[in-house]
Amino acid sequence: MGDTMSGESHVTVKIPRELVEEMDKLLGKHGFRSRGEIAKEAIRRFMENYKDILEAPVLADLNLNEHGVQIAEIQGNKIVGVAQIYFKPPNKVLCEKDESSDCRHVKFALELPEVQEILRKKGWKPK
User: Fold this and answer.
1) In CA terms, which of 4, 36, 97, 124 is 20 to 30 Å from 25?
2) For residues 33 and 27, is the Cβ–Cβ distance under 8 A?
3) What sign for the dihedral angle of Cα 104, 107, 113, 114?
4) What are 53-73's pLDDT values in tens digits?
5) Which residues lie closer than 8 Å to 57 by C-beta, 6 or more apart?
6) What residues does each domain of the chain span?
7) 3-state SS of 50-105?
């Protein structure tokens, strides 16, 4: 990413020349008067595809024992949801909230060193 211009609310981003040449073909069409307008529109549309990721609550572990872990969903300074993750024999980790073994809560839980240690002690390799 480019450097922030001192005192301004814009940044400079370098893009390949061939993209600029394509952008230039749109100038004067569909209301585009500058490369900047084209770039802003393209980025807005691109970011819309990732809206669910950008707005997803942050995850944090709340409570952990040998039977499972609670994962908090946090937005701002507030807990907006809790997912209970269970360690189920034989060798299965399950999210009660999503009824899944492959949701973001389970993936987060399996990355926690404390969870990895508990599962190792059980002799499990989570799927």
Assistant:
1) 4
2) yes
3) positive
4) 777 789 999 999 989 999 999
5) 73, 74, 75, 80, 81
6) 1-55, 57-122
7) CHHHHHCCEEEEEEEECCEEEEEEEECCEEEEEEEEEEECCCEEEECCCCECCCHH
Sheet of 92-95, strand order = 58-65, 68-75, 78-88, 92-95
pLDDT band at 85 (very low <50, low <70, confident <90, very high): very high
Task: For helices 113-122 and 104-111, give the axis angle rounded to 10 degrees.
Answer: 80
Q: Please, are residues 71 and 105 in contact by the beta-carbon 8 Å criterion? A: yes
Per-residue model confidence as pLDDT tens digits over 99-117: 999 999 999 999 999 999 9
Length of the chain: 127
Per the CB < 8 A criterion, the answer to whether 120 and 88 are in contact is no
pLDDT of residue 5: 47
pLDDT at position 89 is 85
